[in-house]
Amino acid sequence: MTDWTSRSAAALGRGIGSGEIDPVALTQAFLDRIAAHPLRDRIYARLTPDRALAEAEAAQRRAKLGRRLSPLDGVPVSWKDLFDTAGVATEAGSALLKGRVPEADAPVLRTATAMGLVCLGKTHMSELAFSGLGLNPVTATPPSVNDPEAVAGGSSSGAAASVAFGLAAAAVGSDTGGSVRIPSVWNDLVGLKTTSGRISIEGAVPLAARFDTVGPLCRTVEDAALMLAALEGRAAPDLQGASLKGVRFASLSNVVMDDIRDAPRAAYCSALDRLADAGAEIVPLTVPELEIPMGDAGILFTTEAWATWGDLISRHGEVMFPPIRARFESGKAFGGADYLAAWERMMGARAAWAQATAGFDAVLCPTAPILPPKIDKLMEQGEYYVTANLLALRNTRVANVMGLCATSLPTGVASCGVSVMCAPMAEDRLLRLSAAAETALS
Questions:
Q1: 29 by DSSP, 3-state: which?
Q2: What is the rounded end-to-end Cα distance, in angstroms, of the chain?
Q3: Span 213-236, pLDDT tens digits
Q4: I need a labelling partner for 188 at 20 to 30 A (CA). Which of 49, 164, 392, 420 fits?
């Protein structure tokens, strides 16, 4: 049998549409690969094989009748373990939620199911989604595909690993400060952070609701576009003919280049050269107004996180991984006045950002300034853990704090990526630009 598990989601969808691939056989192939994989228990928190095969059988019937629901009808994907699944535990990587079984699917999962996506199961994640590293000794720590002794990136760690190791055609994760893009870059995938409010986060275990977003982790930009369409219940944006001719990119110079390691810096500079060779104009850009809200990000995220989880953590925090608990508890230091002042500063910076970037099609930066750290070193839980976590999320936070949509694209150098950022709700334009950039970088 052909190894379907290495194909893109779009290619699998086309194979189902042409009759080359049977959705039931495809789903069983993924389930068999998962069962045989030595790292499966570090990637999947739990599988939903009965649901997957039932959904695949329905997709099989539709394909035979020529009534497919979407280009990805019958394609198996994984879901981060913070999206509610009816009758299946959703624990968000935390012993605080052990045994939590929702009665209904999250709306985004219902929509995706109505578009024909097949749910393989739930993937491991950083505890309550509050880390960019993906280290989770409470449940499991998924590995980076480039180094099994290193973290996969968080908080959608298992989501990325499920795709990178061929255990799902695509994955659905969430992104509050970089949780789709960090695991994507460290596993050489395409990650899409959507604009806050674009896709409903109802039925998703929250971290900071004003910043939480839903997004796919995929092999290609085409897959990301098709996944976004499936999550929204609409037709996918047209990527045909995407070109960088006449495109004007800003390369962000301040904040994102500080303390960047040699490999990500070199990969980014090489990526800029290839984008320019493909016809793009690239202009260095400094946005001084960005500095203050990036410093305020700790106030904004931790205050919301503590407001949501503080009572439960105060009563049962001993079951948590201590560095994650400490990060939540840091939100106790800020009052309402601190939070509102930080929010006002952020909104002022967003206005300045919009003005500074108005003449560009998108803004570029390295997705992550560091490579995935080693698990053993992070488990020492000292200053290295704190520094690595904050630095991992530093660049991706720009899009969250500025309210943007963004992709992370592989550069061809292992665990090094380039981020493309566009204005709020401009995902279709972002995906066309990313498709053209993907061609230039491949």
A1: helix
A2: 28
A3: 999 999 999 999 999 999 999 999
A4: 49
- C-alpha gyration radius of the chain: 20
Helix residue ranges per DSSP H, 278-357: 291-316, 322-329, 336-357
- Entry pTM: 0.98
- Per-residue pLDDT reduced to its tens digit, 270-312: 999 999 999 999 999 999 999 999 999 999 999 999 999 999 9
Catalytically annotated residues: 80, 155, 179
Residues 163 and 145: their CA atoms lie apart, in Å, by: 10
Neighbouring CB atoms inside 10 A of 49's CB total 15
One-letter amino acid for residue 357 of the chain: T
Per-residue pLDDT tens for 67-107? 999 999 999 999 999 999 999 999 999 999 999 999 999 99
Joined together, the tokens standing for residue 149 give 């002794």
Beta strands in 138-224 (DSSP E): 143-144, 147-151, 171-175, 190-193, 213-218
Taking the C-alpha atoms of residue 431 and residue 425, their distance in angstroms, rounded to an integer, is 12
C-alpha triplet 190, 393, 337: angle, nearest 5°: 130
